[in-house]
């Protein structure tokens, strides 16, 4: 499957309207179709990574926190209902292929985040 025919859940905006914070929805508006899909999937996987890092799953409403992009930097903001410090979070994103996104949420508070090592897949068996 090529990128041109990869399905994009963001095209009609319904999933974002249901699952994203207003700041994220506003950031998606007006993006070109390819940019819209890329940003949608980056945002979705980063939101999933944050939820998994917190260990809360979907008990934390997706529209109560926003993933923020500023150039290469990725940040997060919270509504008053979420007791968390955005300064302790470091996010990393990768695209191992045009059809896949990988996101890491590091809440260690370590400046620059914990070191991440990427290795080729599949990992050779020794």
End-to-end Cα distance, whole Å, is 32 Å
The number of helical segments is 3
Outline the biggest β-sheet. Answer: 2 strands, antiparallel
Radius of gyration: 15 Å
Total DSSP E strands: 4
- Average pLDDT reading: 85
How is this fold's topology laid out?
Elements: H1 14-19, H2 22-28, H3 33-54, E1 65-70, E2 73-78, E3 90-97, E4 100-106
Antiparallel strand pairs: 1-2, 3-4
Description:
With 126 residues, the protein is α+β, with helices and mostly antiparallel strands. Helix content is 28%, strand content 21%. The strands form two sheets. It has a two-stranded antiparallel sheet with strand order 1-2. A two-stranded antiparallel sheet has the order 3-4. β3 (90-97) and β4 (100-106) form a beta hairpin. It is globular, with a radius of gyration of 15 Å. The mean pLDDT is 85.
Task: Give the tags.
3 helices; 126 residues; single chain; globular
The gist of it:
The protein is built from three helices and four strands. It has about 130 residues and is an alpha+beta fold.
């Amino acid at each position: 499957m090529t990128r041109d025919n990869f399905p994009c859940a963001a095209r009609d905006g319904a999933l974002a309207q249901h699952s994203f914070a207003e700041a994220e929805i506003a950031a998606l508006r007006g993006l070109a179709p390819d940019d819209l899909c890329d940003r949608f999937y980056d945002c979705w996987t980063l939101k999933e990574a944050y939820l998994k890092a917190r260990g809360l799953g979907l008990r934390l409403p997706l529209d109560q926190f926003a993933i923020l992009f500023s150039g290469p930097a990725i940040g997060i903001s919270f509504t008053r209902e979420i007791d968390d410090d955005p300064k302790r979070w470091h996010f990393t994103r990768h695209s191992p292929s045009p059809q896949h996104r990988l996101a890491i949420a590091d809440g260690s508070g370590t400046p620059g985040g914990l070191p991440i090592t990427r290795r080729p897949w599949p990992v050779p068996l020794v």
